[in-house]
Amino acid sequence: MMQKLLAEFVGTFVLVFGGCGSAVFAAGIEGVGIGYMGVALAFGLTVLTMAYAVGGISGGHFNPAVSLGLAMAGRFGFGDLAKYWGAQVAGGIVAGLALYLILSGMDGFEGVGGFASNGYGAASPHGYGLMSVLLIEIILTAIFLIVILGSTAPSAPVGFAPIAIGLSLTLIHLVSIPVSNTSVNPARSTGVALFADGPAIAQLWAFWVAPLIGAALGALIWKALSPSEQDPA
User: Fold this and answer.
1) Using CA atoms, how far apart are residues 86 and 151, in angstroms rounded to an integer?
2) At what angle do helices 64-72 and 206-225 cross, to 10 degrees?
3) Pick from 152, 169, 170: which is nearest to 161 by CA?
4) Can you tell me where the transmembrane regions are (predicted)?
5) Which class in CATH covers the domain with range 2-225?
């Protein structure tokens, strides 16, 4: 179990450090910044690469919502859920701290600003309200779980799941960065919210509630689509 938890810690660290780091350091540079497309690819690539690197150890969840959805679909034990959540959140927080320490070393540093955090209302990249943010986070997390469950099902081609999962996370970011700055992952949201300026901490609840609801919904939809899939004993 310790190896599994360490793999989840490392995978979540890389996801937050790579995905949020791309937004913090590289997205907004005038003329050469990577923009929304680059950030979306960064998140997708972190999941794809880490799923291949350590997914064989822990299952490659890197996300409390994914762990919940897998448990509800019968792919993961509820008894290990709290342990996985702890490792994932810890990985996200350490990544957020590392990003903060790097950014604070910039010449003329005056604060981290939004720090790639998620938000609604004035904290949304384009001013989307709470209901819009909750809805898009629920829908996209449900889609993410359907892709994960489908691409890792026994009937799916072997070895391609990380590609499908990484590409789906890229698509999710392309849709929702303008709305919520894209969470679909409470550990990712927590890791940067702790260090961000503004209302990120006060709004963090939404980026736990919506992804967890979406994950549960995605698991239920998958079970309806694949009734022959048996729960583990």
Assistant:
1) 26
2) 30
3) 152
4) 36-63, 84-106, 126-148, 160-180, 200-222
5) mainly alpha
With contact defined as beta carbons under 8 Å apart, do 85 and 6 qualify?
Answer: no
Q: Looking up tokens 């972190």, which residue turns up?
A: 46
pTM over 0.85: yes
Contacts of 34 (CB under 8 A, 6+ apart): 22, 26, 27, 41, 42
Distance CA 173, CA 171 (A): 5
How far apart are alpha carbons 27 and 200 in whole angstroms? 19
Backbone angles phi, psi at 135, to 5 degrees: -65, -45
CB atoms within 10 A of CB 224: 8
Asked whether the beta carbons of 147 and 165 are under 8 A apart, the reply is yes
Answer whether 35's CB lies under 8 Å from 183's CB: no
Length of the chain, in residues: 233
| CA triple 85-91-93, angle to 5 deg | 100
Question: pLDDT digits over 149-173, tens only?
Answer: 999 999 888 899 999 999 999 999 9
Structure tokens at 38: 């680059």
